[in-house]
């Protein structure tokens, strides 16, 4: 009878090696290694390890229990957007030299990482029109929260004027982060155009006001007039949450004098991923750089005069400043930032612009056709690729029926806030087509009968 | 005549003003200074409290006020030439001038010889 | 050469399908349309592939070689898990799909959560935090919420050992706590007498990792937990070093109330040049109501759902539910290793560390005489005095030998420190080779110190000037 050899995945030690090593250490058994631990061993109540083929079968089964909607039938956004992602993006970012590399603390053997992130920082500056960007945060929501904390560091004041049209999950995240500080949040409603009511904003600004936060395009899809926002915001820190694809078509917040620009890079080459990991970008003006959180890559020379890259201004960070750091962030989303950079490199300015224009065109076609079918748009303002329209009371029932027909239809806004009952948020990108739009409308008409 | 704090700042009295900097010993330990976070003129400081910081690439050193008073002048040159602290920490690399509110506090500080011994003991 | 310098106007790297609707943009106000130049590179697909291939070739990685970074747990990242995380049923689902249509994803998250509860001895877990530090902040906010819920408003102090990782005091400060540092014993352990002196009704929490950052098990942990709880405070566990005890001991059994995990350390998910990771937070039942929303739950009929009904929750730490792709990898890893594999992994991690420690004690003073766990710290101060060569130089010279340097200058309580964590996926040969290389470098430091002081010599770039880089920063390509 053959003796069964116990195989532990990824662990190379043979029994003989274990014995040899114990001997060198001067111990008899593995238990001796734990002599100093005054606790009894407790075996885990988990199944024993499995082979690769069984694990694959089990996990695949789980993935197949999820319904994947065909791309052109997705008409929902609200922070996660479906775009075409060229296969080569995945191919490049899957390289083990990127995936299994560590944080670039030893710069001389991390020039791939450092240069890629330096280039990413540059691209974010170009997109946003700002002077300096960090090498990523976790997502748009936490990036915004950190921006709010940074604004507080800049002027010491405590009132944050947040447009109602900032993504609700982003607002919630800000409020959670603010629990450690004495910050107040005031919500500024939108007007009938769907953009932030600037008269209202002006009224709320007082001596304790710290920052103004608007989203561009905003949560309702409306394009904010950043020139006017900047005027009204006076000397407050102006934080803009921006959608990156739209920045190729719209004048970026940097041109209007924004102080901090943040957002989520998911539309730049990252699939929906069930909401994560995505990536937060964070850009600001040079005069504020020492107050900015996150890792920053800078250019330098080596001992022979060759150009190279290193992490700079590390004295802001936790590993040096500890309790006085600008943020506690350590691990970031570098691999996702790389994904953004690769995608932007493939698309170029013309490609991004084309995607933005198609997204805009498809959304406007959808809006026009909905209006022709008797649906009314809620807001009068200009929109990019998302818009809000009025729906019947029982829209949620219709929405589920549409899902059964394979559509991820415009989202019922009641899910985000009861005040928005009777409204839906539609989205279109370059992946939708005239045909898929017509089929959606067709299904909606049938469902309503 | 210079006096020193155990937190490695030096003080040179000039009438009612105390010129303050970090000791040569401190700059050696800090390494190449890359940035000086100068405080605002007019800031009121209390003896023993942190009132500014000096940064190298790998460290940020908090600077403690050796005496109480009001900051009347800061060494603006350090904004563009932080390396002055490495070159001449106890001279050209001075940090701030404080108008003292309680000159008696100087008696708590160490003289040059006592400071030198203190540094040796610190190891 | 940067990617921008390779750009050629008019080059395109992609082709979209034929558009069916044309763009007019009539309702866009003129002053809002972009006129500012967007200087992104214009390249062909091959240009892009070659550029990033070249960058990749300049990177060290786990796949390439040994990465003994202390407290980072640079173990092998299984390729299977990369494949499983990329399955379409996981990558193409939108977070706002109805829960009935993503039952596979929710089931995975639920089962992962249950497994992590079992591994840590905690009662409930949130998978939301994106990283360890994010988890620490979450944990600290939970501590704060707990005390406030009992109208105990005085507890503003967080106690943190001076050996702690920088994220501990940083997270505590971000949660609004005043951080008080506790001096360790000369052995690098928590000084119980020091702790007693600092415990009072103003202390909210003590943050610890066990084993600590010197790789030593806090043998007084049960007494420490008792003292902390008697003083009305909570005990927080930094899970960065879980790889030492996984499958054998559990923080929940030691008295910890709040725990965070680093899936990108202990659970083999890749580091990706600095992220993304995942930092789940576990709590004992009495704190569960403060966890971030939503939580993944299982209903009586066996279906899974997202529970937003936590009125005392601290709120959201980020958008959506967590770093889902990372969770898939950790889930697959736990299935693969199982109860027996996880225990074996931590045992081999501890064996490897003690073995390497023994080999290196020939060349360096080890910071503690005690048996270490999965990592150990070397005190290079005598070496530096004897040779005039700094630990930084040794780290740079290691790069010439094709090995990544261990963590240097941390923990702060050891001078000229090198913190070394081999992990269980390294073989005896790798450890023998590493020790041999260290021996060679020590020799060089004695006989040819300039060679070490001017290292590295064989890397894509030589030693980089980070002084000028910080003094005159260049943040972007112009």
Give the low-confidence spans of chain B.
none
Structural class of chain A: alpha/beta
Shape of chain B: globular
Average pLDDT value of chain B? 91
**CATH topology label of chain B:** OB fold (Dihydrolipoamide Acetyltransferase, E2P)
| Rounded Rg of chain B | 13 Å
Total count of strands of chain B: 10
How is the secondary structure organized here?
The complex is a heterotrimer of chains A (449), B (123) and C (478).
Chain A: H1 15-25, H2 52-64, H3 87-93, H4 96-99, H5 111-128, E1 132-133, H6 140-155, E2 159-163, H7 168-177, E3 184-188, H8 198-204, E4 209-216, H9 226-233, E5 237-242, E6 260-264, E7 280-284, E8 296-301, E9 307-312, H10 318-321, H11 334-372, E10 386-390, H12 395-404, E11 411-412, E12 423-427, H13 434-448
Parallel strand pairs in A: 2-3, 2-4, 4-5, 5-6
Antiparallel strand pairs in A: 1-7, 6-7, 8-9, 10-12, 11-12
Helix pairs in contact in A: 3-11, 5-11, 6-7, 8-9, 11-13
Chain B: E1 2-4, E2 9-14, E3 17-22, H1 24-30, E4 33-37, E5 44-45, E6 50-56, E7 60-64, E8 69-74, H2 77-80, H3 84-87, E9 96-100, E10 110-111, H4 112-122
Antiparallel strand pairs in B: 1-2, 1-10, 2-3, 3-9, 4-6, 5-8, 6-7, 8-9
Chain C: H1 45-57, H2 79-85, H3 88-91, H4 103-120, E1 124-126, H5 132-149, E2 157-161, H6 167-174, E3 178-182, H7 192-198, E4 203-208, H8 221-230, E5 234-238, H9 251-254, E6 258-260, E7 281-283, E8 295-298, E9 304-307, H10 324-360, E10 365-366, E11 376-379, H11 381-387, H12 391-400, E12 407-408, E13 417-420, H13 428-447, H14 449-453, H15 466-471
Parallel strand pairs in C: 2-3, 2-4, 4-5, 5-6
Antiparallel strand pairs in C: 1-7, 6-7, 8-9, 10-11, 11-13, 12-13
In short:
The complex is a heterotrimer of chains A (449), B (123) and C (478). Chain B has 123 residues and is α+β, with helices and mostly antiparallel strands.
Provide structural commentary.
The complex is a heterotrimer of chains A (449), B (123) and C (478). Chain A is of the alpha/beta class. Chain A has 13 helices and 12 strands. In chain A, 36% of the residues lie in helices and 13% in strands. The mean pLDDT of chain A is 95. With 123 residues, chain B is α+β, with helices and mostly antiparallel strands. Chain B has 4 helices and 10 strands. In chain B, the strands form 2 sheets. Chain B has a 7-stranded antiparallel β-sheet. In chain B, strands 4-6-7 form a 3-stranded antiparallel β-sheet. In chain B, β2 and β3 (17-22) form a beta hairpin. Chain C is of the alpha/beta class and 478 residues long. Helices cover 36% and strands 10% of the residues of chain C. Chain C contains 15 helices and 13 strands. Chain C has helices at 45-57, 79-85, 88-91, 103-120, 132-149, 167-174, 192-198, 221-230, 251-254, 324-360, 381-387, 391-400, 428-447, 449-453, 466-471, and strands at 124-126, 157-161, 178-182, 203-208, 234-238, 258-260, 281-283, 295-298, 304-307, 365-366, 376-379, 407-408, 417-420. Chain C has a 7-stranded mixed β-sheet with strand order 1-7-6-5-4-2-3, sandwiched between helices. In chain C, strands 10-11-13-12 form a 4-stranded antiparallel β-sheet. In chain C, α4 runs parallel beside α10. The longest helix of chain C is centred in the last third of the chain and has 37 residues, at 324-360. Chain C is globular and about 75 Å long. The mean pLDDT of chain C is 95. Chains in contact: A-B, A-C, B-C.
């Amino acid at each position: 009878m053959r003796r069964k050899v116990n195989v532990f995945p990824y662990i190379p030690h043979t029994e003989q090696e274990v014995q040899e090593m114990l001997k060198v250490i001067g111990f008899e058994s593995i238990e001796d290694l734990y002599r100093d631990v005054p606790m009894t061993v407790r075996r885990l109540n988990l199944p024993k390890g499995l082979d690769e083929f069984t694990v694959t079968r089990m996990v695949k089964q789980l993935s197949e229990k999820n319904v994947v909607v065909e791309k052109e039938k997705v008409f929902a956004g609200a922070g996660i957007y479906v775009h075409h992602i060229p296969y080569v993006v995945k191919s490049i970012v899957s390289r083990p030299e990127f995936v299994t590399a560590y944080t670039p603390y030893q710069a001389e053997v991390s020039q791939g990482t450092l240069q890629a992130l330096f280039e990413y920082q540059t691209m974010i500056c170009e997109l946003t029109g700002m002077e300096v960007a960090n090498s990523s945060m976790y997502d748009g929501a936490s990036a915004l929260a950190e921006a709010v904390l940074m604004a507080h560091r800049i002027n010491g004041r405590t009132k944050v004027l947040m447009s109602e049209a900032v993504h609700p999950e982003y607002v919630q995240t800000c409020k959670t982060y603010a629990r450690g500080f004495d910050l107040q949040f005031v919500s500024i409603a939108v007007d009938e155009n769907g953009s932030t009511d600037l008269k209202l904003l002006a009224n709320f600004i007082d001596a304790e006001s710290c920052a103004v936060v608007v989203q561009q395009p905003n949560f309702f899809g409306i394009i904010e007039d950043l020139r006017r926002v900047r005027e009204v915001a006076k000397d407050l820190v102006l934080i803009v949450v921006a959608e990156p694809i739209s920045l190729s078509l719209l004048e970026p917040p940097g041109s209007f004098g924004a102080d901090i620009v943040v957002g989520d890079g998911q539309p730049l080459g990252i699939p929906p991923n069930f909401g994560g990991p995505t990536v937060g970008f964070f850009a600001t003006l040079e005069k504020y750089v020492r107050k900015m959180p996150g890792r920053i890559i800078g250019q330098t020379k080596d001992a022979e005069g060759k150009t190279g890259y290193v992490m700079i201004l590390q004295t802001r960070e936790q590993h040096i400043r500890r309790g006085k750091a600008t943020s506690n962030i350590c691990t970031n989303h570098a691999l996702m930032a790389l994904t953004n950079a690769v995608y932007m490199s493939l698309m170029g300015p013309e490609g991004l612009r084309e995607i933005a224009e198609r997204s805009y065109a498809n959304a406007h076609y959808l809006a026009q056709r909905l209006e022709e079918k008797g649906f009314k748009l809620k807001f009068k303002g200009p929109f990019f690729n998302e818009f809000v329209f009025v729906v019947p009371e029982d829209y949620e029932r219709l929405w589920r029926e549409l899902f059964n027909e394979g559509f991820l239809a415009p989202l019922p806004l009641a899910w985000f806030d009861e005040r928005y009952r009777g409204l839906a948020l539609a989205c279109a990108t370059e992946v939708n087509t005239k045909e898929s739009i017509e089929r959606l409308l067709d299904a909606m008409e049938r469902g309503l009968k | 005549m210079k006096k020193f704090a155990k937190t490695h700042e030096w003080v040179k009295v000039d009438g009612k003003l105390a010129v303050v900097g970090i000791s040569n010993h401190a700059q050696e330990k800090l390494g190449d200074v890359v940035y000086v976070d100068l405080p605002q003129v007019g800031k009121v400081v209390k003896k023993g409290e942190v009132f500014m910081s000096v940064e190298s690439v790998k460290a940020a050193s908090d600077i403690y006020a050796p005496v109480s008073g009001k900051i009347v002048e800061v060494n603006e040159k350090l904004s563009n030439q932080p390396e002055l602290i490495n070159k001449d920490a106890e001279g050209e690399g001075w940090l701030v001038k404080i108008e003292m509110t309680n000159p008696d506090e100087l008696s708590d500080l160490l003289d040059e010889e006592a400071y030198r011994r203190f540094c040796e003991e610190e190891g | 050469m940067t990617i921008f310098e390779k750009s050629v106007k008019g080059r395109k790297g992609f082709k979209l399908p034929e558009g069916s609707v044309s763009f007019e943009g009539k309702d866009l106000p003129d002053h809002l349309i972009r006129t500012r130049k967007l200087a992104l590179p214009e390249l062909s697909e091959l240009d892009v592939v070659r550029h990033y291939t070249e960058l990749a070739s300049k990177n060290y990685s786990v796949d390439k070689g040994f990465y003994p970074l202390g407290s980072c747990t640079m173990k092998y990242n299984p390729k299977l898990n990369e494949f499983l995380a990329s399955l379409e049923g996981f990558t193409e689902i939108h977070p706002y799909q109805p829960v009935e249509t993503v039952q596979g994803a929710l089931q995975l998250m639920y089962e992962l959560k249950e497994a992590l509860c079992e591994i840590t001895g905690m009662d409930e877990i949130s998978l939301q935090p994106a990283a360890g530090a994010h988890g620490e902040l979450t944990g600290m906010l939970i501590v704060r919420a707990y005390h406030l819920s009992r109208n105990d408003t005085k507890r503003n102090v967080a106690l943190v050992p001076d050996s702690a990782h920088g994220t501990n005091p940083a997270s505590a400060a971000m949660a609004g706590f005043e951080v008080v540092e506790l001096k360790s014993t000369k052995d690098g352990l928590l000084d119980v007498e020091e702790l007693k002196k600092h415990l009072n009704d103003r202390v909210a929490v003590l943050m610890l990792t066990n084993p600590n950052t010197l790789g030593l098990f806090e043998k007084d942990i049960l007494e420490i937990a008792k003292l902390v709880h008697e003083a009305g405070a909570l005990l927080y566990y930094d899970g960065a070093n879980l790889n030492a005890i996984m499958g054998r001991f559990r923080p929940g059994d030691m008295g910890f109330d709040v725990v965070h995990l680093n899936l990108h350390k202990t659970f083999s998910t890749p580091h990706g040049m600095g992220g993304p990771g995942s930092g789940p937070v576990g709590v004992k039942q009495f704190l569960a109501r403060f966890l971030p929303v939503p939580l993944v739950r299982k209903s009586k009929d066996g279906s899974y759902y997202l529970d937003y009904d936590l009125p005392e929750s601290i709120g959201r730490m980020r958008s959506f539910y967590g770093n889902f792709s990372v969770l898939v990898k950790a889930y697959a890893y736990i299935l693969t290793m199982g109860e027996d594999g996880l225990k074996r992994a931590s045992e081999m991690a501890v064996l490897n560390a003690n073995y390497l420690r023994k080999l290196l004690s020939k060349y360096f003073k080890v910071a503690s005489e005690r048996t270490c766990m999965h990592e150990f710290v070397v005190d290079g101060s005598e070496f530096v005095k004897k040779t005039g060569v700094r630990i930084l130089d040794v780290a740079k010279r290691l790069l010439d030998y094709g090995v990544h340097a261990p963590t240097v200058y941390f923990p702060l309580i050891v001078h000229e420190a090198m913190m070394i964590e081999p992990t269980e996926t390294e073989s005896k040969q790798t450890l023998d080779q590493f020790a041999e290389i260290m021996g060679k470098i020590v020799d060089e430091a004695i006989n040819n110190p300039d060679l070490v002081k001017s290292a590295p010599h064989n890397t894509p770039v030589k030693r980089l000037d980070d002084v000028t880089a910080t003094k005159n920063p260049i943040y972007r390509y112009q």
